[in-house]
Amino acid sequence: MKNEIFKIVPEQSKIEWIGKKVTGAHDGTIDVKEGEIILNGGKVVGGTVVVNTASIKILDILDPATNTQMLTHLASDDFFSIEEFPEAVLDIISVNGDRVEADLTIKGIKHPVSFDISANAGNTLLTASARVIVDRTKYEMKFRSGNFFQNLGDTLIYNDFELNVTLTAKAVKKDVSVTV
């Protein structure tokens, strides 16, 4: 069976993030820059999603000064080091049923992640969604992590953050001879 390649449509795709701390949570969005999803027999078998880390937005902080202060902090070396690393990349390595094994690269650091995917493909359009849990400390984001600092009390930030990903992609190539 031949592979089908679907190119991600960034304007019709979104990533919502949630970061939690002892006293609550923050949420926002981050943009998909580009990517592709590869199907074989109507099932996802591979792909790449490139994220524009400089596009991160915070939705729950409405005060402009506080929002800007937190965005500046997320852009700093304490978190995403956006100036040096303007992109994060997810490379799908394998898919078993709905379970995806992938490599996630943030700040130039690559680690494996696993998550479930839901995908629906037609002849020309594919939609996919996934919930990805990321341990930020694996990517040198140690700020207020209980793994690295003691006595943080109610300033502790949990290590895991959540990405709720919704992708729309359009078919660009069919019957591509690629071995999976």
UniProtKB/TrEMBL annotation:
Annotated ranges, domain Lipid/polyisoprenoid-binding YceI-like: 5-170
Classification via Gene3D superfamilies: Lipid/polyisoprenoid-binding, YceI-like
UniProt cross-references to SMART domains, sorted A to Z: YceI
Alphabetized InterPro entries for the sequence: Lipid/polyisoprenoid-bd_YceI, TTHA0802/YceI-like_sf
Cited PANTHER family: PROTEIN YCEI
Name of the protein this chain belongs to: YceI family protein
Organism: Dawidia cretensis
Classification of source organism: Bacteria, Pseudomonadati, Bacteroidota, Cytophagia, Cytophagales
